[in-house]
Fold:
Amino acid sequence: MRQPYIAGNWKMYKTVSEATALAGALVAAVGRETGRKVMIAPPFTALHAVREVLKGSKIVLGAQNACAELEGAHTGEISLRMLRDAGVTVVILGHSERRHVYGETDALVNRKVKLALAEGFEIILCVGETLDERQKGVTEKVVEGQTRGGLEGVAERDMGRVTIAYEPVWAIGTGKNATPQDADAVHSFIRTVISQMDGAEAAQALTIQYGGSVKPDNVRDLMKMENIDGALVGGASLKPETFLPIVQFDR
Structure:
């Protein structure tokens, strides 16, 4: 059985003091959680401080992005080796905001994925369609292209360190969300794609999160679905009173 995996993406929120306060509240409430995996991805400026708060807890430290190069003249970027030095073990790659706001292509995301895996990280690869693409009926085409493009050249032996997050772009930060049934259908389709790429065993073992306005009042219905294994949470991860009920959902 796949272990539930709840991740909080704090995006460009929280000063260092705010981040450590939030991390401390989470550690106090779920720091010893063993029934599910919990990850938080603070802003880069707070990583070192949050690492200290998380010490001794089961909560994993993640990063929201990484450069496709390990070092060099890349002003404003942050490398995987810098992230490792900060205590990060998981990196979110291909988030829709990176794709649609900052123009990251499948090819660039793939370079990041392969480099992160080569450097020993776990990754969360984000895939998902825009509202226009959904209305045109090309959701599966888009999701398959991003999945295959992001994982091109990834060895089957490394798939155990890959999580996929299906995040319909139209549901991120909008208050809208796919129905549990619609989300599960796309998750099931992603398993079919992975089965074609790496075999049925890898597809069944793969953890697939849903991301897109996940809240305390919808997480239980989402997590009841056969192919939904967790959540990549944005806005609701910024407060203990909204994130903890998601982490502690009861099927």
Q: What stands out?
A: Residues 26 and 132 are 37 Å apart (CA to CA). The beta strands are 5-9, 37-41, 60-63, 90-93, 122-127, 162-166, 207-210, 230-233.
